Amino acid sequence: MRKSLSFSPMEFSGLITILILAFWQLQAQSFGINGWIITALLVPFSGLTLLGDYRQNEINSSAQYIRLIAMTVIITVIFLIGEDVFAVIVLFFIVSVTAMQALQDNRGLVWIVAFALLTALFVWWISGDFVLSLINGVSTFGGYLFIGNAAVAQVRAERAQAESERLNVELQAANEQLRLQAHQAEELAAAEERNRLARDVHDTLGHRLTVAAVQLEGAQRLVDKNPVKAKAMIGTVREQVVEGLAELRNTISRLRAPIEADLSLPAALQKLVDEFSAATGLDITLSVPKMMLDISPDVQQTLYRIAQEALTNIQKHAQASTVKLAVQQLATDQLQLTIKDNGVGLPQDRSSGYGLQGMQERAAQHNGTVTFTANQPTGTVVTAIVNNK
Question: What is the phi/psi pair of residue 385, to 5°?
Fold first, then answer.
C-alpha cells in the first residue's frame, strides 16, 4: 500500500493524459453514447494505472499479469467502440509504462512487443494497408520501449534515493551509537583510573600511615621506660611520613587536569617535568621539536598520560637519578614519545604492572604501541608511537 497520496511525475502525467483523452473522445463522439462508454471505461483504466507501488514491490507478478491483461482488454474495447487508433496509441504508451515498471525485465519487453503488434493490427483493421500497419507497429514499438525504459529509470532512481536515505539514517544511528559507546568507554576509563589511584593510595600511603601509627603507639609506651628506643621509633615514623607525603604529592598531581585547555603538548609536558622534578628530586630533561603540526586533544592526553605513568614508575621502581623525555614527529600522522632512565632496569615480569598495561591500552586507542627495552648501560627505554588522527 502507498504511504502517501503523492504521485510520481510520470503517474501524474498519465492521469492528465487520460483526462484529456476522455474529453477528446466525448467531443469526437459528439457527446454520444459511445463517447460516454469510452469515458466510463477510462475510469477503471485510471485506477489500474495507479494500483500498487512499484517502488516498494508490493504486488506479486500474477497480480501484475492480471492487471496488464485487464488494461489491454479495456484498450481493445475502446478501439472497437471508437475505432480511434490515436487514442489506442496514447493508452498503450501509458500501459507500456505500467508494464516496464511492474516487471522491469524481459517480461516487460514481451508486453511492449505485444502492444506494438496490437497497434499494427488496429491500424490494418482501419486502413487495410499492411505496409502502413507494419510501419506503425515498428515506430510505436520504439516509442513504447523508450517511454517504458524511462519509467524504469525513474523507479530505480527513486529506489536508489530511498536506499540512500535509509543508509544515511542507519549511518547516523551508528554514529550516535559510536558516540555513546565512546562516552561510556571514557567514563569507564575514568572509573578505572580512579580505582587504580585508590589502590595506589591504599597500598602506599595507607601502608605507611598504618606503620607510622603502630610505631607511634610503641614509642608512646616506651617514652618513659626506654627513651632511646622511643626516639629511634619516632625517627622511623618521621621517615615513613616523609615518604608518604612524597607519594601523596605524586598522587595529587595525577588527579589534576592532565592538560589545560590553553597549553600545547610541549608546554604541558614541560609543566609535568618541572612539577615532578621538584616533587621527587629527579633530574628530568625534555626535548621537543621547535615546530610541531597540530595534535588532536585525545592524542595529546594519551601522550601526556603515558609520560606521567612512565615518570611515576621510574620514581617508584627504577631507583634512577636522571630521566630524558623526547617527542618526535615521525610523519604527518605519527608521533613518538621516548622516556629513558638510568635506573636498575626492567623487572623479570614487566607485564604484570597496572601502569605498564595502562600505557599500552592508551596507545592502542590510537592504533599505537608501547615498547619497553633496556637502556645502555643501565636503565629502561619506554617508546610510545601513536597515530595523530
Answer: -120, 125
